[in-house]
Amino acid sequence: MELIPIGYPSTITLFIICGIILLTSIKYNFGKNMKESFLAFINYRQSLRVFEERRDSDKQSGILSYILFSLVIGIFITMLFPFFGTYPLWGNYSLSILFFSAVVGLIYILKACIWQLFGEIFIVQKFSKIYIFNMFLNNRIVGFVIFPLIAIFPYIAEIITPFIVYSVFAIIIISYFFKIWRIFNIINDQNVSFFYFILYLCTFEFLPLLLFVKGCKVLSESVIV
User: Fold this and answer.
1) Per 3-state DSSP, what percentage of the chain is helix, strand, and coil (rounded to 5)?
2) Which tens digit of pLDDT belongs to each residue from 5-43?
């Protein structure tokens, strides 16, 4: 089947190239960290070991991986607009990608800060630190896995694009439930009250997700005339 472009501007290619450079840098400089991250994502005990034995290289790899994750999600959200028959924010793909990448990045940084405060208030500092580590670990793996799909998305035949979109959605949903299961493991392992699990779901997952979806809808309606 002949591959044909589906109408995305060439500026998206620049963002994808930036993602490739980030991923290559992480793989070349922190290949061991990537392998450990995948193992820690799958195995809770492995994640605890990695958490306890964090090195400077883990922090450097984590920062680059988080930038990649934010960029990838920003690209994906922006490419969904024309996929569903509308226009990106402000009618500009570059601004839309930068906006959503920044918003996604700031959301998780804010969540980490709130969890840190949460741990101080309820005297569960270790619990909150372990969760923050696993939250960013989850994002890191999601970024690694979906980036190849998103990188080819603008250049494939239109008949294939729905499979790519739904595959990315499936990966994100699976990782979402995997994250919920991981927080349950942490609560159970740290002997923390089940109340925190319910609080986590309502305050840190469902509410932000609803607000983000609502915000995207309001923005798309206000800037697209």
Assistant:
1) 85, 0, 15
2) 445 667 888 999 999 999 998 888 877 778 888 888 888
